[in-house]
Amino acid sequence: MLKPNSSKRQAAKGLPLKAKWRRDWQMVLLMIPGVLFLLVFFYLPVLGNVVAFQDFQPYLGIMHSEWNGLQNFVNLYDNPDFWDALRNTLLLAGVQLLLFFPVPIGLALIVDSLVSNRIRRWFQTIAYLPHFLSWVLVVTLFQQSLGGAGFVNNLLRQAGLDPIPFMTNPDTFPLLVVAQLIWKDAGWAMIIFLAALTTVDVSLYEAAAADGAGRWRRMWHITLPSLRTVIVLLLILRIGDILSVGFEQFILQRDSVGPGAAEVLDTFTYYAGVVGGDWSSGAAAGLAKGVVGALLLWGANSLAHRLGEPGIFQRRS
Amino acid sequence: MRPVWKENPSPAYQAVKALILGGFALVIVVPILVVVSTSLASDQDIIDAGGYVLWPSHPTLKAYETLFSGGLMGRAIMVSVFVTVVGTAIALAVTIALAYATSRPVLFGRPVLLMVLFTLLFAPGIIPMFLVVKQLGLLDSLWSLILPGALGAFNFVVLRTFFMNVPGELLESARIDGASDFTILRQIIMPLSKAVIAVVGLFYAVGFWNAFFNALLYLNDTSKWPVQVILRTYVLQGKSLSADQLGVEPLPQPQSLQMAVVVVALVPIALVYPFLQRHFTKGVITGAVKG
Fold first, then answer.
1. For A275, nearest residue in chain B (alpha carbons)
2. Yes or no, beta carbons of B127 and A26 under 8 Å apart
3. Residues of B with Cβ-Cβ distance to A148 under 8 angstroms
4. Across-strand partners of A67?
5. CA-to-CA distance for B143 and B141, rounded, in angstroms?
6. Among all residues of chain A, which has the CA nearest to that of B261?
7. Closest chain B residue to A179 measured between Cα atoms?
8. What ipTM is given for this predicted complex?
9. Distance CA A237, CA A260 (A)
10. Does the CA dihedral A141-A143-A148-A153 come out positive or negative?
11. Cis omega (within 30 of 0) for bond into B250
12. Pick from A43, A82, A77, A48: nearest CA to A65
């Protein structure tokens, strides 16, 4: 591949600042809008997390509210609702990891084994589509299909059977949530595995076939090992994201299933802070979640490095 | 073309594969089909079928005429279209400029790049975000849906990776001919990366069109609600749309009206999707694998 950097810019490393400015001022100008957006809508809110250490009163504002140290975190620790939300979050994340994660891999393996390109294209077109639908739409489609008055239960009633409360049963809620996630994103998540499969050296398959390896042995010894890096990468990302199980999905269904099953850390933050007016507790829960999430991501990534996988942040040597 | 080692699958394998892939595809297609059919069905169709119609025998656009005749839903569509069009334009401009500027070794390029990548690691949280939007006076303004979404780190990475692979010699010769960085971006980089820009644009547009939570959070004023919030309130939560809100009488079957709302939320995506689908894999892979 061609060297990406322009030779003039590369050669001029040791230039004084003034010369660099004369050369690059247009580029710096191009950066300004983006940097402004980042400052206002990312870094300023990150700093705004100080309200987690305050007894924040909206009419006083951040500057005049009183500091109360770690009191909000102590309150969280004593709040059973917070622990329920945390437990639900971890439970749902665990179920998602266990039941969702293998599905795209399996789909990719099947699609990759298809001989007909036409069928493959058709399936991919259909499977990618739901990723682009909003959660409101997905939940609505589920409700219209599986809800109490939905068409599946309509059919059950017409057949003289009892309707099944798919959408409102708190006990089966984790399964419903995973089903929705699979419906919406399993096809899309398949893309990256399919892409990884196209990079596999075909001569490996030929050699294995010549040595008498059947389809299963080839899958086990060639296909799956070549997916390893991608699988590890996605697992890391998933672990870093384990405390965000999906916000809209839960806020949309919290009313019909009840907070006992559908309250997760994000919805807790929203209901405590924005709806309940306890800004500081909400911010404390949100901050705790953000920090733990970042630590998990970093931890999982260094674990991957130790196992000899590239992970997400390549370590520069 | 089939590689020599790929033997023809046995009928049993073929059947299992067809069952899995066909089943998955049907589960995706059928609910969408039922919703679209029901929105097009006549009142009599719906009553005969007992609620849902798989294929309307007397298709009618009455439900859509009612929705588009103005009032609540008409306004919501205007809001969603405005937010999507303006939001995507702003987001693309900001992201393209930043991605190009950081794709070459330039002054401040490195720290700015790290600034963007850090946003991938940590989310500021709902409450501080709300406070910032409130402080800026954006509550109850449509800008609260547009501005916070104007720079997506993933989209930035996709574009930047693509720009980095444009050969430096090309830019160098343009520079020798006297082109400024602005000209290079407009006349060389952007025409070369039309496909990637289209995909990133689609990602942004879908994000703005689908925005639900931000609207719930920042907009109290019902007249500013986008389509997604209407969908939640009047279909998911089942509040009925009154003739008063829609400004027409008499109303068609509530069922077909509700399904028409669903279809309105769905259609723009279904329309753009086929044109961009072939570029997806490339866009996603540049972003995910190299980022």
1. B217
2. no
3. none
4. A54
5. 5
6. A137
7. B27
8. 0.88
9. 28
10. positive
11. yes
12. A48
H or E element in which residue A55 lies: strand A54-55
Closest-CA distance, A308 to chain B, in angstroms, reads: 17
3-class DSSP assignment, residue A167 = coil
Supply B144's token pair.
């609260």
Q: Using alpha carbons only, give the angle B277, B282, B287 rounded to the nearest 5 degrees.
A: 115
CA dihedral B15, A123, A176, B269 (to 10 degrees): -160
Q: How do residues A156-168 score in pLDDT, each as one tens digit?
A: 888 888 888 898 8
pLDDT tens digits for range B126-172 = 899 999 999 899 999 999 999 998 999 889 988 998 899 888 888 88
d(CA B75, CA B227): 9
A151, B34: Cβ pair inside 8 Å? Answer: yes
What string of DSSP letters covers B145-203? HHGGGS--HHHHHHHHHHHHTS-HHHHHHHHHTT--HHHHIIIIIHHHTHHHHHHHHHH
What's the rounded mean pLDDT across residues B65-89? 89
Positive or negative: CA dihedral B154, B156, B160, B163: positive
Dist. CA B98–CA B76, nearest whole Å: 32
Q: What is the pLDDT of residues A38-90, one digit of tens each?
A: 999 999 999 989 888 988 888 888 888 888 888 889 989 999 999 999 999 99
Residue A193: closest C-alpha in chain B: B285
A19 inside 8 A of chain B by CB:
no
Chain center to CA of B142: 17
Q: What is the DSSP string of A142-165?
A: HHHHHSTTSHHHHHHHHTTPPP--
Q: Which of residues 75-134 of A touch B (CB under 8 A)?
A: 107, 110-111, 113-115, 119, 122-123, 125-130, 132-134
**Cβ of residue A236 closer than 8 Å to a chain B Cβ:** no
Establish if A41 touches chain B: CB-CB under 8 angstroms: yes
Q: Are B59 and B41 in contact (CB under 8 A)?
A: yes
Instruction: Report the distance separating Cα B285 and Cα A196, nearest Å.
Output: 9
Distances in Å between the Cα of B124 and the Cα atoms of A34, A40, A277, B130 are: 17, 11, 19, 10
Q: Which residues of chain B have a CB within 8 Å of the CB of A3? A: 167-168
Rg (CA), chain B: 24
